[in-house]
């Protein structure tokens, strides 16, 4: 078994009417950053009115993941998509707090609330 | 007579000390002050991105024994990841097969845990654009009790320290 090909990140895109949810699980680091960015980019392609990134099952998020979120914020503003982030109570929340990005992004406690209020 | 485990520990301690002696003095002191009775991590990993995850797993397991709260533990893993990512990204642009040396140990003298990340590549300053990746060093600075960066002709050495719980984060006031 090769460590190099082991999957440590999974991204699943779901449609909820005209809203899209990206459910992310695992570790977002410099290695998996591109996969995360690709999932977010693809989810914007259908031009949903709202895009929610669910990070509750993320077990690590470094600046690589934060950079993808910042770029997504710029891109969604340009495309007039409302971006919401659900960090959960784990490490994703901590990474957002440390960098102050929790003040810059629309953060919601649950996906249901992001979909209802975003 | 040493049994196999003792012999192995003794060999790796000798290797650790030989390595430490080549480091800048304050970093060398931090490594030498490590408690031999506490778990120590000492690894040489290839400078490739997929090494980050197993290294974080090892650091998480190692750090769990010191009584840090959940947020401090998350900060520690985040900062170590940033330091190792920097070593991989900045240190090896022209040397794909480079090695990053990694140490983590508990210093009873300093009442702290110390992490050392050393590469042998050429240092590049972080990008001056205010992007998130350029904030990596600021994040390390913000979440550590001590962060020293040494750039030398043989590469870059980062020392990250956290005071043990109950020991206080800063030095004497005033």
UniProtKB/TrEMBL annotation, chain A:
Protein name from the UniProt record: Anti-sigma factor antagonist
Cleavable signal peptide: none
Membership in a protein family: Belongs to the anti-sigma-factor antagonist family.
NCBIfam families registered for this protein in UniProt: ant_ant_sig
InterPro entries cross-referenced by the UniProt entry: Anti-sigma_ant, STAS_dom, STAS_dom_sf
Lineage per the UniProt record: Bacteria, Bacillati, Actinomycetota, Actinomycetes, Pseudonocardiales
PROSITE patterns given in the database record: STAS (PS50801)
Gene3D superfamilies xrefs: STAS domain
UniProtKB/TrEMBL annotation, chain B:
Pfam (any one): HATPase_c_2
UniProt KW ATP-binding keyword: no
CDD domains: HATPase_RsbW-like (cd16936)
Gene Ontology MF terms: kinase activity
TM helices/strands, residue ranges: none
Keyword flag Repeat: no
Keyword annotations from UniProtKB, A to Z: Kinase, Serine/threonine-protein kinase, Transferase
Domain Histidine kinase/HSP90-like ATPase span(s) in chain numbering: 50-162
Protein name: Serine-protein kinase rsbW
Species of the source: Kibdelosporangium persicum
């Amino acid at each position: 078994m090769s460590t190099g090909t082991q999957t440590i990140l999974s991204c699943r895109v779901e449609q909820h009417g005209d809203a899209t949810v990206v459910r992310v699980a695992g570790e977002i680091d410099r290695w998996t950053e591109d996969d995360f960015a690709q999932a977010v980019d693809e989810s914007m392609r259908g031009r949903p009115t709202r895009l929610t990134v669910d990070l509750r099952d993320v077990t690590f998020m470094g600046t690589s993941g934060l950079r993808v979120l910042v770029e997504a914020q710029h891109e969604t503003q340009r495309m007039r998509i409302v971006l919401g982030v659900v960090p959960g109570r784990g490490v994703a929340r901590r990474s957002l707090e440390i960098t102050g990005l929790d003040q810059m992004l629309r953060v919601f406690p649950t996906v249901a609330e992001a979909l209802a209020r975003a | 007579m040493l049994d196999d485990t003792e012999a192995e520990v003794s060999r790796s301690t000798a290797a650790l000390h030989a390595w430490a002696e080549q480091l800048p003095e304050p970093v060398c002191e931090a490594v030498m002050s490590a408690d031999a009775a506490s778990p120590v991590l000492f690894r040489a990993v290839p400078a490739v991105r997929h090494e980050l995850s197993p290294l974080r797993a090892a650091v998480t397991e190692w750090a769990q024994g010191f009584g840090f709260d959940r947020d401090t533990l998350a900060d520690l893993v985040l900062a170590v990841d940033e330091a190792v990512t920097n070593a991989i990204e900045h240190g090896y642009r022209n040397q794909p097969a480079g090695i990053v040396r990694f140490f983590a140990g508990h210093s009873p003298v300093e009442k702290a845990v110390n992490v050392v990340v050393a590469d042998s590549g050429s240092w590049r300053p972080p990008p001056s654009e205010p992007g998130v990746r350029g904030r990596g060093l600021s994040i390390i600075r913000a979440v550590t009790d001590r962060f020293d960066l040494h750039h030398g002709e043989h590469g870059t050495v980062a020392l990250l320290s956290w005071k043990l719980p109950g020991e206080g984060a800063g030095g004497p006031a005033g």
